[in-house]
Amino acid sequence: MLADWTYIGIFILVALFVPAIAITFAAILSPRVPGTLKQSAYECGMESVGKSWIQYKSQYYIFALVFLVFDVEIVFLYPFAIAYNQLTLFAVLEVILFLLILVAGLVYIWRKGELEWA
Fold it and tell me: ∠ CA 59-110-55 to the nearest 5 degrees?
């Protein structure tokens, strides 16, 4: 039992130290030659005109979050689709419950008008 947790602990340590080592090496080895051209703002090859900080409608973020929820749904449903022939009745009912919860969320968002693109 303790050996299983040892592997998990080693995995966590490696997962923490490998990126830290890579970031440290990049900071040490990267060239530091600042210049006016390097420090200027770049957008499509031209300097920006006007305010660069504008507010977006929160609807765009909500639309993106809804897309993400239904995109992640596919990730959870894929293993069930692959193993459909070996599933028990309980597993099929669980998938149906999962889909009903997602459909209820979609209906709620739809009725609220969040899917209307303005």
Answer: 5
Among 117, 112, 79, smallest CA distance to 98 is for 79
Ranges of the chain whose pLDDT falls below 70: 1, 41-48, 52, 118
Give the orientation angle of helix 58-82 with respect to helix 89-112, to 10 degrees: 160
**Please, are residues 80 and 87 in contact by the beta-carbon 8 Å criterion?**
yes
Q: Copy the structure tokens of residue 102.
A: 């997602």
CA distance 110 to 102: 12
pTM comes to 0.48
Nearest residue to 76 via CA among 94, 56, 54, 49: 94
Rg (CA), the chain: 24
